[in-house]
Design brief:
The protein has 282 residues and is of the alpha/beta class. It has 14 helices and five strands. A five-stranded parallel beta sheet has the order 2-3-4-1-5. The longest helix is centred in the first third of the chain and has 16 residues, at 74-89.
Length: 282
């Protein structure tokens, strides 16, 4: 099983765990998948995990069913252009949109077609763990290395990989220490790889608060982002209609019922489509 497939499963597993109070409780719902496996998959510690375990998780999460058809929605088209621009010109950008607009799905779609892309799922990490996560996303096991060694390793890989793009998903979750680390990464990687921070509009509010309170690092980080947050195009009712139809629902009444029930949430559309298809309402 290739790295991209594993990364896709790991992202879906992470989203699944967020529905529970803890990873322990999420793992308890998965047959023959221990808490340790869940933690290792999410944290990029993949060396000792068999392909059988990966396939088991994919099956239990429902992502090995009928392949979900991705269509060029307004959000996906906008983000793809941004990723490509970042790759070709080693740009650093911050993009924002409403929640559940399909940012993560767009990143996964892009990585499926461009091998020199890595998605880092952001959390309230410490600086060291953040660096380990970044290196894990590009296939490097950095456990046991010092911060200095990790920094050198990241720069080395960035210079070796043509048109590398690091996509920081849900970047609004990064704490102040990681915002400061972002400045260091920018200084070391400038001109060698593209960096895209993507999140909901909370990311802009986070920076506005940091700038207003003169919090360490925010002014420098904002400058390195071009002092701008790019708002991507929102998906339209037509986009939702086309997604649902492309994924096997053809009855007009059902399509519009799904659109109304989804509240513009791409993840909810996906669940509803599977639910209706299971019931035979296509």
């Amino acid at each position: 099983m290739d790295r991209i497939t594993k990364q896709t499963i790991a992202l879906e597993l992470r989203n699944y765990c967020l529905q529970f109070e803890s990873q322990n409780k999420a793992a308890a719902t998965l047959k023959n998948i221990s808490v340790a496996y869940v933690s290792q998959m999410i944290n990029g510690q993949w060396d000792k995990i068999s392909d059988e375990k990966w396939r088991s998780v994919a099956k239990q999460l429902g992502i090995d069913k009928d392949e979900w058809v991705i269509i060029p929605t307004s959000t996906l088209t906008d983000l793809t252009a941004i990723y490509q621009d970042a790759a070709e010109n080693a740009l650093v950008m911050a993009v924002i949109s409403k929640s559940s607009a399909g940012k993560t799905e767009s990143a996964k779609h892009y990585i499926g077609k461009n091998k020199n892309v890595a998605i880092i799922s952001c959390e309230d990490y410490g600086k060291r763990v953040f660096m380990i996560e970044i290196l894990a996303a590009i296939g490097v096991d950095a456990r046991g290395l010092s911060s200095y060694e990790m920094s050198k390793l990241l720069v080395k890989h960035a210079m070796e990989i043509k048109e590398l793009v690091l996509i920081f998903d849900e970047a609004d979750k990064l704490n102040d220490k990681c915002i400061c680390l972002f400045i260091t990464l920018y200084n070391k990687l400038e001109g060698n790889c593209g960096i895209v921070l993507q999140a909901t509009k909370r990311l802009r509010k986070k920076f506005e608060a940091g700038l207003r309170n003169i919090a360490p690092g925010y002014e420098e980080a904002y400058s390195r982002l071009g002092s701008n947050f790019i708002e991507v195009e929102e998906n339209t009712t037509s986009d939702f209609y086309n997604i649902i139809k492309a994924n096997g629902i053809t009855a007009e009444e059902t399509i519009y019922q799904i659109i109304n029930d989804s509240q513009g949430d791409i993840r909810r559309i996906k669940r509803l489509v599977y639910a209706y298809k299971k019931e035979g309402a296509i």
